[in-house]
From TrEMBL:
Free-text function comment from the UniProt entry: Part of the phosphoribosylformylglycinamidine synthase complex involved in the purines biosynthetic pathway. Catalyzes the ATP-dependent conversion of formylglycinamide ribonucleotide (FGAR) and glutamine to yield formylglycinamidine ribonucleotide (FGAM) and glutamate. The FGAM synthase complex is composed of three subunits. PurQ produces an ammonia molecule by converting glutamine to glutamate. PurL transfers the ammonia molecule to FGAR to form FGAM in an ATP-dependent manner.
Family per similarity comment: Belongs to the FGAMS family.
Gene name of the record: purL
Organism: Halobacteriovorax marinus (strain ATCC BAA-682 / DSM 15412 / SJ)
Residue numbers annotated as active site: H225, H298
Annotated protein name in UniProt: Phosphoribosylformylglycinamidine synthase subunit PurL
Annotated binding of Mg(2+) 2, by residue: D320, D487
Enzyme class, broadest EC rank: ligase
Length: 983
């Protein structure tokens, strides 16, 4: 049934028809057509066909246009506007059979249909999730708008048996066809398992080889996305630079998990509650609450559908928080986008533009809108984030989304961080319904992106449904109705119930009991579908009635789909027939360990086909022009118009927002949430920061990891966070490092991963900052074609995002901007270090060295800075990171429109290096003696006193901060234009 943005009004149930036109394509005219009609309640089930879209309601002949484009969601794709409209009708006891939302665009142009579609695609619609119809004006008047095609299915799905006793070539074909993302070795292990258990299976009436339900369940469970096989592999590592060879049995165990274990023991930390175990890390930075923190990636889905990929990413990580322990309340979101530079495709010759990739600017518009909708419509503030631009990210963008939650330390007599399930407990799934969207999401995210990637891996989430589910879940938790809970994320019920079954040692799941969006799904599709807004619950039988009644009152659909057992098996049924029976030990422990090779020889090759020529840096270049160019770089320039679309203060608990003021905006280095109104101690808060140094990675991955940690830690320390109460999350996003054929390039990528993990371990130990959770995404490569048919491969820069969370007394919150003139300004920390891997070095040809990082020295600096803050000596404190000292100084002078005459002569390296451990501080002149009494070594550099000039005098040159501010605020004008997204 076709309709256009139908909105119900309380008094007369009239409808409002809004045909939206908003895209300017070669002087396209825009029209907004409004119409009302009275809806007869007695024929409400017919109105959407018979009344709302009667053709005579819209007289097309009265408008000047040449073409019409109609866009609506494909059948089965989540249609949030339609769902909300149907819910609105329900408020007035009006039952709507079905509804969907469409947009019509009118074009007045000389362009052809194909030209219009080329310009509109990815801006007005995405063919992966949208159907479209384009007509000329004559065709529209003669043919009319096409009725939407609904999905048609057989009533019952089918189960197939998969013969694995086939050749290696046929196994490979099977793997590709079904998007299993398994290696040949893994497929043979599965085959051997079924051969060994043939007689056992026959006794219970199952075929010798796996059903498609079983094979898909195993593939999901064994996917790189879920099992982190690369991080747990046995690695033969040769460091040719140091002439050293070693065997590493699991990067995760040897470096990440080990660091946290040793930090906890050496520092006698009592605030690590649950790490690397649950859906999120759990820490205790408050006397009354426990804190949960998780950061996820949604790279592959966002490459295909930016809006849907990012939306499901942020909603998914919120569900990670909801599914942590017995259920935590999400209280703050964070996000980081790594994207290709906007305008990249416009700068290429047309025949060299990637054939199937979405342009970077439309990726940006889509992922931003997705994260915005996910947070704002869920009532969760977005308080921190970042954007980074490099052309290597145009193949697969890196979309990091994070969430913080709180939960009471106890629910009744239970520790809220501990899940418990007993045989006999009932399995419920609540929230959204199951559809074809999101099938193979886990396995799809475990492979390289290419032109034939599965389209049904794309999903669109519904934040309104999830908010309702969230409120219901937390109420059920507080009533003591929940024994255990987890989210239906990657792999759907296969993952959630398959994992929960380990707590009782078994589960019986009945797929036909699950709520479906439409009939006809095959059983394996029901099992692994990642359709959104769903959580899985373990409920005691005696509480099942209360649980169902609460769900009904709160408008949440729950389905009783099975029972936990102690059988040692995951049994799957469909209409009373057993279609799957897998031993839990094999399902979760049977995946064979990877054996990988890694080398490091300082010969890492950055495979980026869009590398740009760097400019020569001459003595005639003024310092102001150099600074303007650095400040206009996408990583540094203002993102204000994007940031302000997020709601930073919903809930009323934000103590520090991302931006200060609306004139001469200043950027804060972190976000801070107050815990008091959330049930925590008065005056207590949390600071959230991030750090990345991916440009250093190709030179020194070890140093790259250390710089990433250092920036994340300084982000929050400079605002007042206690350096002894900081925890970290690591998110590795790497190009494929798996060596399939003695590929030295992939071995170098693996070597870079080993060195980065070592760097992470070493600096975390020195800083006493335990790693509490993390995620890795190891296949961030694109293989496809340019428009001229030539092969195209793009691999991301090896990227490590480090996220920090720390405890802060809210009275200690410190400004990151220099507040006025008349203050003495200093740099704390070493000025050593070169320009390799810096923004300046990306823009200019420079012969230099690596940035400097001395973790032991930096830790002492952190303690000193915290002492200066707690004693009230500092007027401001900001960190120095991307762009270096001169960029940081400029940004921190913007808000007060102050200036400074820098007294010492500083080299280009000192002005622009991005070395670790440094802060800019300002103090009242009367506090200089106190400052010198605390810092009496060469780690303190006096720059000068702030003045009213709004200029920086440096090395006998005057830099006009009015011009610098303009470059910073308008330097990324290309992607600050009003971009739209078709959803």
């Amino acid at each position: 049934m076709n309709s256009y943005q139908v909105v119900a009004y309380p008094k007369d149930f009239s409808s409002f028809i809004n045909v939206e036109v908003s895209y300017d394509c070669s002087a396209i005219s825009s029209y907004e057509i409004n119409s009302k009609s009275v809806i007869d309640k007695d024929i409400i089930n017919r109105i959407l066909v018979d009344q709302v879209l009667e053709s005579d309601m819209l007289d097309y002949t009265m408008y000047e246009f040449t073409h019409m484009l109609k866009v609506d969601f494909k059948s089965g794709v989540t249609d949030n506007t339609a769902i909300s409209t149907i819910d609105a009708f329900k408020l007035f006891d009006i039952e709507v059979v079905s509804l969907h939302y469409s947009k019509i665009y009118f074009f007045n142009t000389s362009l052809s249909k194909d030209d219009i579609l080329e310009k509109a695609m990815q801006v007005l619609f995405n063919p992966l999730v949208h159907d479209y119809q384009i007509l000329t004006k004559i065709e529209l008047l003669e043919v009319g708008i096409r009725e939407r095609i609904e999905l048609t299915h057989n009533q019952l799905g089918k189960v197939s048996v998969i013969d694995l006793d086939i050749s290696d070539n046929l196994l490979h074909e099977l793997n590709t066809k079904r998007c299993l993302a398994l290696s040949l070795k893994e497929l043979k292990v599965i085959r051997d398992y079924y051969i060994e258990n043939e007689s056992k299976r026959k006794k219970i009436g199952l075929p010798s080889f796996p059903t498609d339900v079983e094979l898909e369940c195993i593939a999901q469970t064994w996917s790189e996305h879920c099992k982190h096989k690369i991080f747990n592999a046995r690695i033969n590592f040769t460091n040719r630079k140091e002439d050293k060879t070693e065997v590493i049995d699991s990067i995760f165990s040897s470096f990440i998990k080990k660091a946290t274990k040793e930090i906890k023991e050496e520092n006698k930390l009592d605030w690590l509650i649950s790490v690397f175990h649950d859906n999120a890390g759990i820490i205790r930075f408050d006397e009354k609450l426990d804190i949960c923190f998780k950061v996820e990636t949604h790279n592959s889905p966002s490459a295909l559908d930016p809006y849907g990929g990012a939306l499901t990413g942020i909603l998914g990580v919120n569900r990670d928080i909801l599914g942590c322990g017995l259920g935590a309340k999400p209280i703050a979101n964070t996000n980081v986008f790594c994207l290709g530079a906007p305008g990249l495709f416009n700068r290429l010759s047309p025949d060299k533009v990637p054939r199937s990739l979405i342009s970077p600017e439309n990726i940006l518009a889509g992922v931003h809108k997705g994260v915005e909708d996910g947070g704002n419509k869920s009532g969760i503030p977005t308080i921190n984030g970042a954007m980074s631009f490099h052309d290597s990210y145009c193949g697969k963008p890196l979309i990091f989304v994070g969430s913080v939650g709180v939960m009471p330390q106890r629910i009744g007599n239970r520790d809220s961080s501990i899940k418990e399930i007993s045989a006999g407990d009932l399995i419920y799934v609540g929230g959204g319904r199951v559809g074809k969207d999101g099938i193979h999401g886990a396995t799809f995210s475990s492979i390289d992106l290419n032109d034939s990637s599965p389209l049904n891996a794309v999903q669109i989430g519904n934040p309104i449904i999830q908010k309702r589910l969230s409120d219901f879940l937390l109420e059920a938790r507080d009533l003591g109705l929940i024994k255990a809970i987890t989210d239906n994320g990657a792999g759907g019920m296969s993952s959630s119930i398959g994992e929960m079954a380990q707590l009782s040692n078994g589960a019986d799941l009945f797929l036909d009991k699950a709520a479906l969006k439409y009939s006809g799904l095959d059983p394996w599709e029901i099992l692994i579908s990642e359709s959104q807004e769903r959580m899985s619950f373990a409920i005691e039988k005696e509480n099942s009635t209360k649980f169902e009644e609460l769900a009904l009152r709160r408008g949440v659909e729950v389905s009783h789909v099975g029972e936990f057992t102690n059988s040692g098996s995951f049994k799957i049924f469909y209409h009373d027939e057993c279609v799957g029976h897998i031993d839990l030990d094999f399902l979760h422990e049977g995946v064979p360990k990877m054996e990988l090779s890694a080398i490091w020889d300082e010969a890492y090759v950055d495979y980026n086909p869009f590398n740009r020529r760097k400019d020569l840096l001459s003595s005639s270049d003024s310092l102001e022009n150099i600074l303007k160019r650095v400040m206009s770089h996408g990583d540094i320039a203002s993102k204000e118009r994007w940031i302000r679309k997020y709601d930073h203060e919903v809930g009323g608990n934000s103590a520090l927002r991302p931006l200060e003021s609306i004139d001469n905006t200043s950027v804060n280095h972190c976000g801070i949430i107050s815990l008091e109104r959330l049930g925590g101690r008065a005056g207590n808060g949390l600071g959230l920061g991030v750090g990345m140094a991916q440009r250093v990675g190709k030179y020194d991955p070890y140093l790259m990891a250390q710089l990433s940690v250092d920036e994340a830690v300084r982000n929050i320390i400079c605002h007042g966070v206690n350096p002894m109460k900081i925890a970290l999350l690591d998110n590795f996003c790497w190009p494929n490092p798996v060596d399939d054929s003695n590929d030295l390039d992939r071995q170098r990528k693996m070597g870079a991963l080993v060195l980065a993990s070592k760097g992470l371990y070493d600096i975390s130990k020195i800083y006493s900052t335990p790693l509490i959770s993390g995620k890795d995404s190891m296949k961030n490569d694109y293989f496809g074609k340019s428009r001229d048919g030539s092969d195209l491969s793009i691999s991301v820069l090896p990227t490590l995002l480090v996220s920090s969370i720390g405890q802060i007394e809210l009275d200690n919150i410190t400004d990151s901007h220099i507040p006025r003139e008349g203050l003495d300004i200093f740099v704390i920390g070493s000025q050593k270090g070169g320009l390799l891997g810096s923004i300046l070095e990306e823009l200019y040809q420079i012969d230099s060295s690596l940035p400097h990082c001395d973790p032991v020295e930096n830790r002492r600096t952190f303690q000193v800075v915290h002492q200066l803050i707690t004693e009230g000596i500092l007027s401001h404190c900001g960190d120095i990171s991307q762009g270096g000292l001169l960029c940081a100084l400029s940004e921190q002078l913007f808000l007060s429109r102050s200036g400074i005459d820098i007294e010492p002569e500083l080299s280009l390296e000192e002005l622009f290096n991005e070395s670790a451990g440094r802060f800019l501080i300002s103090v009242e002149p009367k506090h200089r003696d106190k400052l010198n009494g605390i810092i009496n070594d060469d780690s303190l550099l006096y720059l000068g006193r702030s003045n009213k000039s709004f200029k920086i005098q440096c090395n006998q040159q005057y830099l006009d901060l009015t011009n610098i501010y303009k470059s910073w605020s308008e330097g990324v004008l290309l992607f600050n234009k009003e971009l739209q997204y078709g959803n």
